[in-house]
Known about the structure:
Layout: H1 10-26, H2 38-44, H3 48-51, H4 56-60, H5 69-72, E1 79-83, H6 89-98, E2 103-108, H7 111-124, E3 129-133, E4 146-152, H8 161-171, E5 172-185, H9 191-194, H10 197-201, E6 208-209, H11 210-219, E7 223-229, H12 238-247, E8 249-257
Parallel strand pairs: 1-2, 1-4, 2-3, 4-5, 5-6
Antiparallel strand pairs: 5-8, 7-8
Bound molecules: S-adenosylmethionine (SAM).
Amino acid sequence: MTTAARTLDTQELEQRVKRMYKEVALEPQREFHFETGRALAERLGYAPEDLNRIPAAAIDSFAGVGHFLDLADIAPGETVLDLGSGSGMDSFLASLAAGRDGRVIGVDMTDAQLAKAARLAAEAGVDNAEFRQGYIEDPPVEAASVDCVISNGVINLSPDKAAVFTAVARALRPGGRLALADIVSTEQLPEGVTCDASLWAACIGGAMQRDSYRRAIEGAGLEIVEWRENDQYRFVSERADNAVRKYGVTSISLLARRP
Ligand SMILES: C[S@@+](CC[C@H](N)C(=O)[O-])C[C@H]1O[C@@H](n2cnc3c(N)ncnc32)[C@H](O)[C@@H]1O
């Protein structure tokens, strides 16, 4: 195979990611390479009493990989940016913490996810959360306008993670923080995996080697404060499981700060 033939086709990837997460929004009960829904959320550490306070349909389409809202520690009045907000579960939880005087901006590139999150917000009378069409590499928010950026299971899907962390640093006010859960790998994944758009869309192929991931965050000028492993997260298909065992693909949560 030539080098050119082994390059990830980013346009194909975007279409696949959009197709997959459109299905997660519209048909959450289907089987995917990954788990979804309330049982997953509770296993990852989300408190049932918190989940009971937000729209159930947002939880049905939850496709995150870890819990990190304790690290985010969102205070009343804060502005929160949720990168890859999906059907909005973390955004709705963040909106409860930010309260009446705070606000949450969810950004996603998949129309069906945005439409679902916006509809659920309107139906539930949540008026401090809005959902904007956009890319996590260049989210539609003003520079230095955000107290806390959150993201769950999304940055691994980006072919340009350095751009995402640069965008996070730009969006955060000085002293602001980034709290996320994501997929990383112990070993650098081989091209056969990284150039497979379907494994990438399933949150495996895009997993960055963990030291490189740390360097990408620090390279954007952010300081990592805490890093923890999410042993409760698991992939469900055999193909995914092989990559997980061979290359140490795992879920982590972290907190970083803009100095
Ligand atoms: C694994 S899902 C997670 C969604 C949500 N955070 C959750 O926990 O349920 C990934 C989401 O990120 C979005 N996404 C992936 N890459 C993106 C990008 N480059 N820009 C904007 N959204 C993206 C997808 O549309 C999808 O809704």
